[in-house]
Amino acid sequence: MTTTTPPQPQTDNLAIAALQDVLIDVAELASQAKQAHWNVRGATFLSVHRWLDELAETLRTHTDTLAERIATLGGWPDACSETLGERTTLESLPFGRLTTGQALTAMDAGLERIAAVATSWLDNAAVGRDPMTADLLTGICRDVQNQQWFARAQQ
Fold first, then answer.
1. Among 9, 102, 105, 127, which is least packed by CB within 10 angstroms?
2. How far apart are CA 90 and CA 33, in angstroms?
3. Regarding beta strands 98-99 and 40-41, do their DSSP bridges make them parallel or antiparallel, or are they unpaired?
């Protein structure tokens, strides 16, 4: 029987930092997706409107999973609006009316950024020593890249 040693506190701290960084951008994009959902207009309105709602829900599910993993590792997840405003790496969504093209482009860029942040943490050897966190980040990358395909296919 093979036994594994529990993660070291330093590994836990790095995993918490990684998860928190991804949580901030995922929570911000979930908010932006809902904002875009309310304000999108254009010839392909209905399909984009529906997809934005589905995207927001998918991202909210990811925020919950990320936050629960942070708490499991002994951290305190933070997706308060002040934290999101200060620490997100995403571009702001324009205020008001959005064409379907603008909304899709903004979501594509946000999804790309989330994948980049998660991937950069996956390159950290300490995060790789925590297989549950690595698996969670890999799954998020896979999902956001799939959502990117949906955004790009509608343009």
1. 9
2. 12
3. parallel
Dihedral pair phi/psi, residue 93, rounded to 5°: -80, 135
- For the chain, the residue count is 155
Read off φ and ψ for residue 98, nearest 5 degrees: -125, 135
Query: Tokens for 28?
Result: 């911000």
| Strand partners for 40 | 98
Question: 96 — alpha (psi -120 to 50), left (phi > 0) or beta?
Answer: left
C-alpha dist (Å) from residue 134 to 14, 40, 71: 11, 35, 16
For 44-88, how does the pLDDT look when each residue is reduced to its tens digit (9 = 90+)? 999 999 999 999 999 999 999 999 999 999 999 999 999 999 999
End-to-end CA distance of the chain: 52
Measured torsion, CA atoms of residues 50, 95, 31, 75, in degrees rounded to the nearest 10: 160
Q: Which two tokens stand for residue 33?
A: 């997706």
Two structure tokens written together for 60: 């909210």
Residue in 146, 152, 60, 149 with CA at minimum distance from that of residue 100 = 152
d(CA 75, CA 68): 9
